[in-house]
Design a protein that fits this description.
Strand content: 5-15%
Low-confidence stretches: none
Mean pLDDT: 91
Structural class: alpha/beta
Number of helices: 9
Helix content: 40-55%
Strand order of the largest sheet: 1-2-3-4-5
Shape: globular
Distance between the termini: 47 Å
Radius of gyration: 17 Å
């Protein structure tokens, strides 16, 4: 039998597009242990070897209600990151700020250590509501990535998704994006809505 690795290495890159995920959800659920920069580098190297477009290693906000961020919050605080101070400024909760802080740490490493031209990185937007989504966008929009991936409640709240797309357009970032991806969508009705949105963006 042919392994998945062999299939990826022998695919015809000029005829296919492979979108690689970074494994943030798997880290949050414990499927992949997180060992700080070591894990971020490992994910980056794998995506560079296999993906045409790849999502940065974000820490999803969706697991906050399940307590999935508590151990990472405690680790970040032990490392000296002032999550309480961040929370004083934005009022969005310690676990939300832990998700954002770890994502930004990962983003910084990927900017510094990525191999130019190996894969195009997508800036991931998280958020369970409009306030979190807007704050997250403002915190990560400066990263020099090639596109965007909308995660969290963006998959079900199209008002929130549209607000971020308007923000991107107003900031001149949508015009530069090479790829726009919405995570967690596999239903026919959403495909119709997103297809209309895609046409509108292309005609803009």
């Amino acid at each position: 039998s042919v392994s998945k690795t062999n299939l990826l290495s022998h695919r015809h890159r000029s005829r296919t597009v492979l979108l690689a995920d970074s494994g943030g959800y798997q880290i949050q659920t414990g499927t992949i242990p997180f060992k700080g920069p070591e894990t971020t580098r490992r994910m980056l190297r794998w995506m560079e070897q296999n993906g045409d477009y790849s999502m940065v290693l974000d820490f999803p906000t969706g697991g906050i209600s399940r307590g999935a961020m508590s151990k990472h919050r405690q680790r970040l605080e032990a490392e000296g990151h002032d999550l309480a101070g961040m929370n004083v400024l934005n009022g969005l909760g310690l676990d939300y700020n832990a998700s954002l802080k770890q994502t930004c740490i990962n983003n910084d490493l990927m900017v510094q250590e990525r191999e130019p031209g190996a894969t195009k990185l997508l800036n991931v937007l998280q958020g369970r509501n409009e306030a979190e989504s807007k704050h997250w966008y403002e915190a990560v929009k400066h990263y020099p990535f090639e596109g965007w991936s909308l995660a969290g409640s963006h998959q079900t709240s199209f008002a929130m998704t549209l607000n971020r797309i308007f923000d991107m357009a107003n900031d001149g970032l949508l015009q530069e994006a090479q790829w726009l991806h919405v995570l967690g969508i596999s239903k026919l009705w959403s495909a119709g809505v997103l297809s209309v949105l895609q046409r509108c963006i292309r005609e803009r």
